[in-house]
Each structure stands twice: as structure tokens, then as C-alpha cells.
């Protein structure tokens, strides 16, 4: 459909069938299959985490082997689809920062919604209520970056954008189990500003010193870096949150077993609130301990999400100090 539409719109440059014969189909199939397998493996990280199932490891290995064959093919053929010369330019750094940026943006589009679903009874269809300030902030950020782009070094813009995202995540790390949607609206909006500024600033650096024949390589690499940052990041954060929740549950559980003063006070408060509804002491104890366990679970989840916000903060903050690997650009 795209080919037919292009042939209709660009009549002065019609599609020539002989160009299909000259196209690097071998390289295209190798790189597509390899990258597709790697993306599939990364996307499974949310459910299984990597290397927990044999077929995930096998797919990961197969993807890297196909990538290796593709790179060998591109080295040996001058008319290859992928132009490896592009990776000797700042484009390589731009791909790394794109992965980091997409990973960092997950604290808005994935961690906060998961926090609200787990702790506030949020529903999937309510996600738009969380993300609308992000869209507004992104639009304002893009407009601001567009105005400043011919006036300020783009490395400063990238560093500033990553810092905005980092400190927005740091602010969210102080959340409690009582936080609701309105508590996240301002950090989401501010993070949107950071995304808008970063998106335009990184575009300058991605396109730095590239030539037209390197365009397909640039597009493929940039898009796959974005996808890998998102799907791989979800797998990492999901596993990280689950492991931290187990750790916090165990630590809080130790306090319950030791019957410390805070635990006894909380248990007494629960019993007092239930005493009017339950007169049987045995039933009162059972329900009280059940509610105490639920409270522990909620607190452990809240602490694990705060740890995820802190992880994102540290990664983005470190990245903001590393943007000077790029050349000067306006």
C-alpha cells in the first residue's frame, strides 16, 4: 500500500522494478529477524524475566547470531542496507542515550500507572487521566526547545532535559501508599517538559554529520533503540519492583514477628476499629492479623515503587552528566 501510494504521489520519480533486484534483501532479512528476536526476548522480561525459560535464552542467542551474520554481511558488501560508517559518528552515542531516555520515561508511562493500579485501585481505562499533563508538558517542551535550538548548545538542552526527568522521578520517590492521582500531576507535567526538550535536542545530534545514504540506517537504529529502551526497561523495572517488594515484605515481617512497639500499636488500632463489628475474640484476632498483613503488603509495594523511582533518578542523573561526549551542536 505504501509503495502504491508513493508511486501515485511522486510521479516525477516513479518506482522502478529493477531497484527491487538491487535491494539488499539478505541484509534486510538478517537484521530484521535478529532485531525482532531480541525485541521479543526483551518484551518477555515483564512476565518471565530473562533466562528463566529455556526458549527465551535460545531466542536471545539466535537473535545475536543473526545480528552477527548481518554485520558480517554489511562489512563485505558495499551496497548493504546498513551503513556501518554511521556508527563511527555521534549517532552511536545518540542510540545509547535514546535507550536510557526511553528507560527513564517509563517512570511516567509505566511505574506511576502501576503504582496507582496496585495501591489506589486504579483501572486501566483511567490511564488517560494520569498522562494528559505529560502530553501538555511535552508540547510546551518541544516548542521551548524549538525556540532555543538555534541559540543554545544542544548538549546543554539534553543535560537539562535529563535532569528535569531525573528530579521529577526523585520527587515521586517520596510517595506514600496514600498518594492519589492528583499527587502525581505536577511531576508528570514537569517530566513532559523534559521529554519535549530532549526529543528535539537529541534530533540535532542524531542527524549530526550524516549523509543521505545513511538515512535508512539512522531510521532503523533510532526506532529500534526506542523500542528496546521501552520493552527492556519494563522487564527490568518489573523484576526490580518485585524483588524489592519481597525484600521489604521480609523486613517488615521481621518487625511483626518481633512484636515491636509500632506493630503492637498498629494491631491495637485495627482491633479497636473492628471491635464494634466483631464480638468474638478469636474472629477479631483473625481479621486483625489479616488486615495487618494487607497493610504490610501495601507498605512493601509503596517502598518498592519508591526504589524504582530512585533507580530511574540515578540513571538519568548520571546520563545528564555524560552528554558532553557529543560534539558541539546548535
From TrEMBL:
Instruction: Output the InterPro entries linked to this UniProt entry.
Output: MFS_trans_sf (IPR036259), PucC-rel (IPR004896)
The places in or outside the cell where this protein is found are: Membrane
Q: Membrane spanning segments where? A: 25-42, 54-75, 95-117, 129-148, 154-172, 184-208, 220-241, 308-326
One family from Pfam that matches here is: PUCC
| GO cellular component annotations of the record | membrane
Q: Does the keyword Endoplasmic reticulum apply?
A: no
Keyword annotations: Membrane, Transmembrane, Transmembrane helix, Transport
Q: What is the first-listed, main subcellular location in coarse terms?
A: membrane
What is its membrane topology?
A: Multi-pass membrane protein
Which superkingdom heads the taxonomic lineage of this protein's source? Bacteria
Q: Which PANTHER family match?
A: MAJOR FACILITATOR SUPERFAMILY MULTIDRUG TRANSPORTER MFSC (PTHR42718:SF9)
Output this protein's name: MFS transporter
- According to its UniProt entry, this protein's organism is Acinetobacter ursingii
Amino acid at each position: 500500500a505504501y509503495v502504491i501510494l508513493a508511486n501515485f504521489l511522486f510521479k516525477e520519480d516513479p518506482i522502478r522494478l529493477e531497484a527491487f533486484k538491487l535491494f539488499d534483501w539478505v541484509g534486510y532479512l538478517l537484521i530484521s529477524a535478529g532485531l525482532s528476536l531480541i525485541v521479543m526476548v526483551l518484551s518477555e522480561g515483564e512476565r518471565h524475566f530473562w533466562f528463566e525459560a529455556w526458549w527465551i535464552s535460545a531466542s536471545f542467542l539466535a537473535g545475536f547470531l543473526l545480528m552477527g551474520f548481518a554485520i558480517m554481511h554489511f562489512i563485505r558488501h558495499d551496497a548493504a542496507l546498513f551503513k556501518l560508517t554511521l556508527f563511527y559518528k555521534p549517532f552511536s552515542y545518540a542510540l545509547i542515550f535514546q535507550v536510557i531516555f526511553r528507560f527513564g520515561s517509563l517512570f511516567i508511562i509505566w511505574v506511576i500507572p502501576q503504582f496507582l493500579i496496585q495501591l489506589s485501585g486504579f483501572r486501566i481505562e483511567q490511564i488517560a487521566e494520569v498522562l494528559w499533563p505529560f502530553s501538555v508538558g511535552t508540547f510546551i517542551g518541544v516548542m521551548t526547545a524549538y525556540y532555543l535550538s538555534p541559540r543554545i548548545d544542544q548538549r546543554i538542552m539534553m543535560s537539562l532535559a535529563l535532569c528535569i526527568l531525573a528530579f521529577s522521578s526523585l520527587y515521586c520517590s517520596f510517595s506514600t501508599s496514600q498518594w492519589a492521582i492528583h499527587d502525581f500531576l505536577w511531576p508528570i507535567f514537569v517530566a513532559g517538559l523534559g521529554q519535549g526538550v530532549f526529543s528535539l535536542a537529541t534530533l540535532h545530534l542524531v542527524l549530526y554529520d550524516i549523509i543521505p545514504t545513511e538515512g535508512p540506517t539512522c531510521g532503523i537504529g533510532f526506532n529500534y533503540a526506542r523500542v528496546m529502551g521501552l520493552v527492556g526497561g519494563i522487564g527490568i523495572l518489573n523484576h526490580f519492583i518485585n524483588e524489592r517488594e519481597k525484600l521489604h515484605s521480609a523486613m517488615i515481617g521481621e518487625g511483626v514477628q518481633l512484636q515491636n512497639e509500632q506493630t503492637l500499636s498498629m494491631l491495637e488500632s485495627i482491633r479497636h476499629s473492628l471491635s464494634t463489628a466483631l464480638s468474638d475474640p478469636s474472629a477479631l484476632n483473625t481479621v486483625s492479623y489479616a488486615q495487618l498483613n494487607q497493610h504490610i503488603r501495601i507498605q512493601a509495594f509503596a517502598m518498592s515503587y519508591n526504589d524504582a523511582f530512585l533507580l530511574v533518578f540515578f540513571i538519568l542523573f548520571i546520563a545528564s552528566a555524560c552528554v558532553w561526549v557529543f560534539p558541539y551542536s546548535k
